[in-house]
């Protein structure tokens, strides 16, 4: 059984509890981070903490981020649960008021802090080896997708709808252009070898993996354009892929029924996956 962390305490997962009045439960009033673990070490921990701080501040959740303290908790959980490869999930909500109320609780209500680990194989991935099939859906999320909140109902619905259609994941389309995947950033590689991914705005999550992968691309002297693209453009691309902390760089081989490239993971996506894993594994803490 896992040991999890709740508000200052390490407890067995079946003894962990939060109030039914917690605002994460009633209002999805919470932010989260998912940090990957390789060789028992955290990948890009400080990138995740920097984004956590921004999400909290955008929503005015009164939690003082102490990076060293959070690092110690992450490490303690990784060690207690013997995680060599997998993820650490961190969630901070605005806290539990004494009743359900749309108004935010008083400033002295403490945020709820929950962390748990998930052991899973990340480097060896059947999906990355065969490539993902994607179907597109309208992006019906709220328009502050740059804040990493736990309002994940719509992404969860489209991922299920994609599975019903025999696909692996969903890409979301706003005003005719792809924003991002259900839980990842989206990319295409044009026929002249340019990597295209949507520019940062309120319409997408500013992926920590995205930033690291674009750095790898620059080091490989690959051309990158940060701009929106349509599903039609993606369907005629040479390659496509997604990035996230949970799947790193993951090739895409089909979009709305159109085969991408030769229908197998493309060389640029494969190379970026290797380089990303090597560089970030070496820098893990
Ligand atoms: N999801 N876009 C969305 C909508 C996401 O939910 C995620 C991450 C990303 C990629 O961000 P990063 O590279 O920082 O992981 C982009 C996480 C992994 C999740 O919800 O499980």
What this model shows, in words?
It catalyses: L-isoleucine + 2-oxoglutarate = (S)-3-methyl-2-oxopentanoate + L-glutamate; L-valine + 2-oxoglutarate = 3-methyl-2-oxobutanoate + L-glutamate; L-leucine + 2-oxoglutarate = 4-methyl-2-oxopentanoate + L-glutamate. GO terms for molecular function: L-isoleucine-2-oxoglutarate transaminase activity; L-leucine-2-oxoglutarate transaminase activity; L-valine-2-oxoglutarate transaminase activity. This is Probable branched-chain-amino-acid aminotransferase. One of its GO terms (cellular component) is cytosol. Belongs to the class-IV pyridoxal-phosphate-dependent aminotransferase family. The chain is an alpha+beta fold. It folds into two domains: 3-119, D-amino Acid Aminotransferase, Chain A, domain 1, CATH 3.30.470.10; 126-283, Alpha-Beta Barrel (D-amino Acid Aminotransferase, Chain A, domain 2). 29% of the residues lie in helices and 28% in strands. It is built from eight helices and 15 strands. Strand 10 (185-189) and strand 11 (195-197) form a beta hairpin. Helix 6 (208-219) packs across helix 8. The mean pLDDT is 98. Residues 34, 180, 183-185, 205, 207-210, 243-246 line the site of N-(5'-phosphopyridoxyl)-D-alanine.
